[in-house]
């Protein structure tokens, strides 16, 4: 990698690492040790685990005579890399009082210092590839830290806010009418070709290889489904009518007692009878009626689509449309931290606001090969029982998402900012 690319990589390293620091700065050491649901991790753990990634995959193999910060951390902050020959540590981390936040911040500073030195001395292609992966990994954990702290604060009886102040009303507060856009489809291509021209151009292995797909004609909604529309589904007995639901979803409705999206609560103070918990505390549902509904899982998204006589888009349809759509939206850099109402006369909200569930399972594209070694565990082993989501959310770093990006979660997952885009044949 050339000296210019190396200095850009070093700058990117600094920027991403300091973003983690500023996102955590609003939280006390006590806030940072909470894990309120099995999917989540304490913010302090996110800070340590992202640092562990650089120590394990970059410094240990490539920094001459590297002395690890604490040998115990190698096991403690591994998350799922079984081929590193370690047991997976207990996922339940509620009692995570030690190591202290101070010690973890020291770990971050120690690794940063070594990384800066390494980046100023090397131009090794493999080092650069791993650093880029580590930075994209850290950005994923920045988003997770925000979704996890939202759940932690919702679980606290005091219901604290992550950020003070009400949601800014910077977008249209009246509903953008739902319109259907027609797409011819035909033979097209999706996925990424790794681009050797720009050394800092990054994609995850599951976005490759680029390959041909055939699409029938389809229609896609011009915007995401709003809270107002979802409220109609609830009022029309959406959660009590098994005919709208996939069998696995209906079993879970009965078992878990779902009646509404996560973070909705009945409240007589609001004219709608509901309020919604956000990273900025409670808002009456009437204040966010025309914003995208979020924190619904795949089963809820699918049931809503059936109720409307529609379906969810496939990921190939989604990418076909996104490929022609400018990459802008309500992402983390807006600072809003909650979906916003749509405006505009094109395909709106594809990027940002909330991740959109697709009808596609997370499987390898034709010709997919995971990365060699332990890093091959990054995406490759999660290709069973997970559905693909596209487009990023209001807590996704803006330079982290793209048209080919494939996020994935179990279909019952609700704690992410996940919402609904409708499609039709
Ligand atoms: Fe991770």
Fill in the keyword field for this structure.
single chain; Four Helix Bundle (Hemerythrin (Met), subunit A); paralog of FGE (formylglycine-generating enzyme); 2 domains; 9 helices; 11% strand; globular; binds fe (ii) ion
Provide a quick synopsis of the model.
32% of the residues lie in helices and 11% in strands.
Would you give an account of this structure?
By secondary structure, the chain is an alpha+beta fold. α1 (3-25) runs antiparallel to α4 (101-121) and α2 runs antiparallel to α5. It is globular. The protein has helices at residues 3-25, 43-62, 73-76, 101-121, 125-155, 227-235, 247-256, 298-307, 315-322, and strands at 180-183, 186-190, 211-215, 218-221, 264-266, 274-278, 281-284, 355-361, 387-390, 407-409, 418-419, 423-424. It has 9 helices and 12 strands. β5 (264-266) and β6 (274-278) form a beta hairpin. Strands 10-9-8-11 form a 4-stranded mixed beta sheet. The chain has a 3-stranded antiparallel beta sheet with strand order 1-4-12, with helices on one face. The chain folds into 2 domains: 3-155, Four Helix Bundle (Hemerythrin (Met), subunit A), CATH 1.20.120; 180-424, paralog of FGE (formylglycine-generating enzyme). The relative contact order is 0.14. The mean pLDDT is 93. Bound molecules: fe (ii) ion. The site of fe (ii) ion has 4 residues, from α5. Fe (ii) ion (FE2) binds at residues 49, 79, 137, 141.
List the bound ligands: fe (ii) ion
CATH fold-level name of the largest domain: paralog of FGE (formylglycine-generating enzyme)
Q: Return the domain count.
A: 2
Overall form: globular
Flag low-confidence runs.
none
How much of the sequence lies in strands comes to 5-15%
Oligomer: single chain
Give the CATH architecture of the largest domain. Answer: Alpha-Beta Complex
In total, the number of strands is 12
Class by alpha and beta content: alpha+beta
Overall average pLDDT: 93
CATH evolutionary superfamily of the largest domain: paralog of FGE (formylglycine-generating enzyme)
Radius of gyration: 22 Å
Report the major sheet.
Answer: 4 strands, mixed
What is the N-to-C succession of helices and strands?
HHHHHEEEEHHEEEHHEEEEE
Q: Output the number of helix runs.
A: 9
Query: Roughly how much helix do the residues carry, as a percent range?
Result: 25-40%
Q: What distance lies between the first and last C-alpha atoms, to the nearest angstrom?
A: 47 Å
């Amino acid at each position: 990698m050339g000296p210019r690319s190396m200095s850009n990589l070093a700058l990117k390293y600094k920027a991403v690492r300091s973003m983690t620091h500023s996102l955590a700065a609003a939280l006390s050491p006590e806030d940072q040790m909470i894990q309120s649901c099995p999917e989540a991790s304490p913010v302090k753990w996110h800070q340590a685990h992202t640092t562990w990634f650089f120590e394990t995959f970059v410094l240990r193999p490539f920094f001459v005579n590297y002395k690890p910060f604490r040998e115990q951390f190698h096991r403690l902050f591994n998350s799922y890399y079984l081929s590193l020959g370690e047991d997976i540590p207990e996922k339940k981390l509620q009692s995570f009082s030690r190591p202290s936040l101070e010690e973890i911040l020291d770990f971050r500073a120690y690794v940063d210092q070594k990384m800066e030195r390494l980046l100023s001395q090397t131009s090794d292609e493999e080092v650069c590839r791993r650093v880029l992966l580590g930075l994209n990994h850290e950005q994923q954990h920045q988003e997770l830290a925000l979704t996890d702290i939202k759940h932690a604060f919702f679980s606290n009886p005091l219901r604290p806010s992550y950020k003070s102040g009400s949601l800014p009303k910077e977008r249209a507060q009246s509903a953008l009418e739902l319109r259907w856009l027609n797409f011819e489809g035909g033979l097209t291509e999706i996925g990424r070709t790794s681009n050797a021209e720009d050394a800092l151009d990054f994609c995850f292995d599951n976005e490759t290889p680029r390959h041909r797909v055939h699409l029938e004609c389809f229609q896609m909604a011009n915007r995401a489904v709003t809270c107002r529309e979802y409220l109609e589904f609830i009022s029309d007995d959406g959660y009590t009518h098994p005919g709208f639901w996939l069998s696995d979803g209906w079993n879970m409705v009965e078992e878990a007692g779902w009646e509404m999206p996560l973070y909705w609560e009945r409240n007589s103070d609001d004219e709608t009878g509901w309020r919604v918990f956000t990273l900025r505390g409670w808002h009456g549902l009437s204040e966010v009626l025309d914003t995208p509904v979020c924190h619904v899982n795949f089963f809820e998204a699918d049931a809503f689509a059936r109720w409307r006589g529609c379906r969810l888009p496939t990921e190939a349809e989604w990418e076909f449309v996104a490929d022609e759509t400018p990459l802008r939206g309500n992402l983390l850099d807006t600072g809003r931290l909650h979906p916003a109402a749509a405006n505009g006369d094109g395909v709106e909200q594809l990027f940002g606001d909330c991740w959109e569930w697709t009808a596609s399972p997370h499987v390898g594209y034709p010709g997919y090969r995971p990365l060699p070694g332990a890093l091959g565990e990054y995406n490759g082993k999660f290709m069973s029982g997970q559905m693909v989501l596209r487009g990023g959310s209001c807590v996704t770093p803006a330079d982290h998402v793209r048209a080919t990006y494939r996020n994935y979660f179990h279909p019952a997952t609700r704690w992410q900012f996940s919402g609904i885009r409708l499609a039709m044949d």
